Each structure stands twice: as structure tokens, then as C-alpha cells.
Amino acid sequence: MSALWSVGAGLLLLLLWVRHRGLEAVLVHHRWVFVCFFLMPLSILFDIYYQLRAWAVRRLHSAPRQHAQRVRHIQEQVREWKKEGSKRYMCTGRPGWLTVSLRVGKYKKTHKNIMINLMDVLEVDSERQVVRVEPLVSMGQLTAHLNPMGWTIPVVPELDDLTVGGLIMGTGIESSSHIYGLFQHTCVAYELVLADGSLVRCTPTENSDLFYAVPWSCGTLGFLVAAEIKMIPAKKYVKIHYQPVRGLQKICEKFTEESKKKENSFVEGLMYSLDEAVIMTGVLTDEAEQSKINRIGNYYKPWFFKHVEKYLKADRTGVEYIPSRHYYHRHTRSIFWELQDIIPFGNNPVFRYLFGWMVPPKISLLKLTQGEAIRKLYEQHHVVQDMLVPMKSLEKSIQTFHVDLNVYPIWLCPFILPNNPGMVHPKGNETELYVDIGAYGEPKSKQFEARASMRQMEKFVRSVHGFQMLYADCYMTREEFWDMFDGSLYHKLREEMNCKDAFPEVYDKICKAARH
Questions:
Q1: Taking the mean position of all CA atoms in its chain, how far away is CA 410?
Q2: Where in the cell is it found (predicted)?
Q3: Beta strands at 151-152 and 187-193: parallel, antiparallel or unpaired
Q4: Cα–Cα distance, 302 to 4 (Å, whole number)
Q5: According to the model, what pLDDT value does residue 379 have?
């Protein structure tokens, strides 16, 4: 009882302090207070609810039966929109703050919201090695469902809360992408409700134009209601090798060399400065040396990027065995390295042991509670960008990132880009090796100015025939945007399927120049 009184007294003092300082001042200058005392506990409740719901759905086997009913409800909403005269564009009714993207879509307030409550795993087909899922199934939910059955998917993008729909309509990548490509390249079928209310299935051989146009379209061709994704056998561990490398040229050479090796199940690089990096390669295995097993996903363990940095500081190589699911979500607890800016002491051993089980706070809740002051602060003094460039341009790209942004660590993730139709493909006629360069944090470049600096970056990426991930802030003009992306198939289908009155163009939905 005395413990409850202590907690109550502590919360009362905290509320009085917040009232004295002002809520906005606390949120801007002491955000960790709000995150630790409110958002982290609330995030736990969110997780418990969704885990219980997923468990109940599995036990009752209700997902497939209810799926058809839910899809019919979506079709009814679209037909009702048509009866009303198609006066407004349509969009999903999911609140903008629930998405992992830092952008909060203002269009939700003006467009017709179509409610899409599709968040279940529908079917695991072991014979075809395919899993059929609804669009709001998250990566954490999917791996938790498949791993006990001995399966996983070839590309498991990092963060637990990333959804299948977001990864298809946007894009997704993982350190296995040098073998399998982007998330879209592991999908074998999509099911969509179109602007006329019809339900269509598309594959590489059936409605193939639509199949290749859907990725990167950001929901502007139809509403995704299901997807089929390839599965591969899961193994217990990832045997990971850490290799510190110094000198930019050597880093690029080593990273390119390892990315071309198909025997590597995983390849990843973390750059801690312009000329210091750790290159990691991993192999799936069922056997492990017990003394070298590192359950890096346990709540009390150091954040992964800090753990990797130890090899650089000690200037030594190393080998570890990480349980597969821990490896797939190795950057989740620290949201890569973004959490260190929100909770500066988050990697402290005392904090990890006492409160690490509540980390990370939900990105959606961070967005919901950030307020206008923090949003503007982040927009001007913070960068979250993924640029996809040809591997042959890696060294020049890193130098450009250093001059324009100077943000470290930098994430390097290789991927193979096939010459398929659609918005994103290599310049030539053959498959090409690309790399995702991820910059997340506060730029240290003295001349950094959000709009000017990012437009400079976007210009460089276009010049090397690269691409910008569309979850992030995009400052391009419409002409520049369609210079970066191939819109030929996309525009053709929007015309054929009467999308122009139903959905905004992808540029109008995501680019700042169109929204301001």
C-alpha cells in the first residue's frame, strides 16, 4: 500500500511540475519525461491488446471467414461514395498518426475516409510456401505467427510496427535484400478494391500491369485488401560476423564485395563517421556455439548499434549467434538510433534493466503527442531519410551525405533491383545492385537548412538514377518527382481505371510542394 502511495505522490508532483513549466515547454525541452511516464506504459497496453486479439483470432480461426465480410463492407463504402457523386477523393480511414511515417497526412480531413479494418494473417500455405495476409498485419505480428511454424518471409523490414500494406504501397528493405530485392519483390499476388467497387486479384501473369504498378503508388490506384508473400524455412540463429573497416574507399569496396556474395544471408553496414564503419555479414543456421549466443532482443541488452560500435572501438572482428527473431528486429528497441534523441539515457544499464521492457514507445503515439512546436523543430533540425542509389555510386553518395547532412550513424543496406515494370527500376535493361543509405538524426552540417539541403540531396539522387523512399519529407517539384520515378505505367492505369476522380496522384499525396 505504501508503494502505491509513493507512486501516487510521485505522479502528483510530476503533474504539478508540468503545470508549473507548461505542457508545451515540457514536451519540447523535457520530452523524455512525457515519453517515460506516459507513452511507454501506454505503448505496453497497445501491445497487450493487439497480442490478445491476434491470439483470439488464431484460436477461433475466424480471420478467413470475417475477411470476405470486411471486404464486402469496403466495396459497399466505395459504391456509396459513387452514389454520392464522387465529389471528394477517397483514402483509407486509418488515422494519419497511426502510420510509421513521420508525415501526418492532412488529406485525411478533406477526403472521403474508407474504413479498412484488416489486420489478420489469413492463411499459411506450406505447399506453395506462401502466406496470405491482410494489409494491416505488422512485421512483429507476422514473424511471431510464422516462426513457431518453422517459416519466415525473405525480407523482414526492421521495425515491429511496419505493416504489409505500408511496405507494399510504399516500400520495405532488409539486410537480406541483396538476394531477394525489396519487400514488393517477395510478393506474388495482391487483392484490391478499385475505384468502381470491384474486387481484383493481380499477379505477374494475371492483371500484370496492375501488379507491377501497385508498389510505391501509396494507395492511389485502389485499396489493398490482401497480399500473398513468399515464405522461406526459418532457422534458429543468424551467425553474424562483425568487421571494422577504416577509410571510405575500403569501406565501399568491402561492402560491395560482401553484397555480391549470395552465400551471405544478410549484409549490413553501420558508418560511425566518414571513414569508420562496421560491415556485418550473417548466415542462417540451426547450430550455434553456446558461449557465443547473444539474445540481443532481450530488454536489458545494449541497443544493437551501440553493441556494434564496441567492435569498432576495440578494433577487432567478432562472431556471434543471434536468435533469428531477435536479429530481424535488432533495431526495433532503439528505433535504429532515434530513441537516443528522445531518451538520452535510454541505453544506460540501470534504465535498461528497470524500464527496458517498456521500450520502444510506439512511433504512432510519439507522432500523436508531438505537437506543432516539436513538429516544426524536427522538420528544421532533424532528418529521417532513406535514399536508394546504385552501388557503383556508393562512395560519391556517402561523401554527399557527409557534406549536406553530416548525420551519423548511417545505415547501409544492399538490395538487388530487377528490371520490372513500375515506378522503380534500374536505368538499363538488366537487374542492378543498389544500396539504401539511411540517415536518421540531427544534421551536424553547419550549412544545413531543411528545404535547401534536402532539395540538394534529391537533385544528387536523381543524377545517379536513385530513388527517395516516400515515407519521408520530399521537396521535389512535380517535374522533378516524375524525373526520378517512371510514371508511364502508373499514369496509364490511372486513366484506364478511372482513378483520377477517386484518388489523388501520388505526388499530391506525399510531396511538400503539393501540400503547402
A1: 16
A2: Endoplasmic reticulum membrane; Golgi apparatus membrane
A3: unpaired
A4: 31
A5: 74
Closest CA to 184 of 151, 218, 234, 161: 218
Cell of residue 360, nine digits:
520502444
User: What cell does 471 get?
Assistant: 515515407
pLDDT at 516: 45
Q: Is the pLDDT of residue 89 over 90?
A: yes
- 278, β-bridge pairs: 244, 270
Q: What is the CA radius of gyration of the chain?
A: 23
Please report, rounded to a whole number, the percentage of residues in the chain having pLDDT higher than 70: 89
**Residue 250 or 104, more confident:** 250
pLDDT band (50, 70, 90) for residue 238 = very high
State the average pLDDT for the chain: 89
Phi and psi, residue 153, nearest 5°:
-105, 155
Nearest-angstrom CA–CA distance, 62 and 440: 40
Compute how many other C-beta atoms are within 10 angstroms of the C-beta atom of residue 261: 11
Asked whether 441 and 382 are in contact (CB, 8 A), the reply is yes
Sheet holding 130-133, edge to edge: 121-125, 130-133, 223-230, 187-193, 199-202
* Secondary structure of residue 233 in the 3-state scheme: strand
Confidence (pTM) = 0.89
Residue type, 127: E
Is the distance from CB of 507 to CB of 478 less than 8 angstroms?
A: yes
263 vs 28: CA distance, rounded Å: 47
CA 483/CA 204 separation, integer angstroms: 26
Reduced to 3 states, what is the DSSP secondary structure of residue 307?
A: helix
Give yes or no for a contact between 267 and 256, defined as CB atoms under 8 angstroms apart. Answer: no
Which CATH topology does 65-233+486-514 take?
3.30.465
Cell 505493416 belongs to: 163
Torsion of CA 434, 440, 443, 444, to 10 degrees: -90
Q: What is the pLDDT of residues 111-149, one digit of tens each?
A: 889 899 898 999 999 999 999 999 999 998 899 899 999
Strand partners, 414: 435
**Residue 440: how many CA atoms within 13 Å on its side-chain side?**
21
DSSP labels, 372-432: HHHHHHHHHH-EEEEEEEEGGGHHHHHHHHHHHT--SSEEEEEEEE---SSS---SSSS-E
The secondary element (H helix, E strand) that includes residue 165 is helix 164-169
Helix (H, G, I), strand (E, B) or coil at 223: strand
Band of residue 7 on the pLDDT scale cut at 50, 70, 90 = very low
Distance CA 513, CA 516 (A): 6
Residue ranges of domains in the chain: 65-233+486-514, 237-481
- What φ, ψ does residue 8 adopt, rounded to 5°? -60, -45
Q: What 3 state SS string does 472-516 have?
A: CCCCCCHHHHHHHCCCHHHHHHHHHCCCCCCCCCHHHHHCHHHHC
- The DSSP output letter for 358 is G
CATH of domain 237-481: 3.40.462
